[in-house]
Amino acid sequence: MYLYTSPIMNTQIRNALFVNGLSASAIAKKFSLPLTTVEVIFRQLLDLNKAETPKHLKVYEYLVFGGLSPSQIATRMNTGEEDIRGILIDLEATENDASSDDYDYEYKTIQKPESVRLFLQYEQDNEDDYDILRIQKQDEDTYKVNYTYNYSSDKSNEKITTLTQGGLVNYLMNTFHLLSLDKRPFYSIEIHIPMYPTVKFTSNQPYDEFLTLIDAILHSQQI
User: Which DSSP helix (H) or strand (E) runs through 159?
Assistant: First the structure.
């Protein structure tokens, strides 16, 4: 979907969000735009695939779908507004995030599905210590799989591979099987699948219950 707004208007809307901290409804009123148009612009200003933590995802959801301003999000998440503004900067889309063919008046169109993310939290009292598994479809039968090991005492270690759909299914089955057998399990697994509710599991769920996620993961990645 292309959005035909001028570069000057785009910059003004970006500043209204990032600098002035206005909500979607306040921006719509300020620029005499439909609220739905502002929501689309927000999704183009922010790159959801840059959401590397559960906190980043919550900020995105509150802003784009909840219609909250940065200050309202800060109150909701019991943190400072500067923290929320910093997350918005982390999420900001740039021209380097898509080819020039994907842009019209500096805004991109979505060419690939949003990635699936699994956040595997180590301990109950440390929400910043977790592994991340990301899955994103690249073309008709190729998926990029990225696993990042985040130990609080070690430097992050990232492993990336590409798999066919059959290879991805086998990988997920093996992963869920290992999680169901773990004698020192993760505290929780938070799963973000595009177009599905965000859910949190204990990591030692029965294997059969994990398998129900595979269809949802594959379905969310259809182009």
Answer: strand 157-163
Take residue 65 and report the two structure tokens written for it: 């779908």
Structure tokens at 36: 């739905």
Q: What are the φ/ψ torsions at residue 103 (nearest 5 degrees)?
A: -115, 145
The alpha-helical segments, DSSP class H, found in 114-194 are 165-181
* CA 167, chain centre distance (Å): 24
Q: Which residues of 53-62 are buried (b: 16+ CB within 10 A; e: fewer)?
A: bbbbbbbbbb
Q: In angstroms, rounded to a whole number, what is the distance separating the alpha carbons of residues 68 and 76?
A: 9
Least confident among 63-67, 88-92, 142-146, 189-193: 63-67
pLDDT at 1 over 70: no
| Distance between CA atoms of residues 129 and 151, nearest Å | 6
Structure tokens at 107: 């805004």
pTM recorded for the entire structure: 0.60
Which pLDDT score, from 0 to 100, does residue 202 have?
78
Residue 103 has pLDDT above 90, yes or no: no
Q: Which residue has the tokens 């035909």?
A: 4
d(CA 10, CA 118): 33
Strand pairing partners for 157? 149
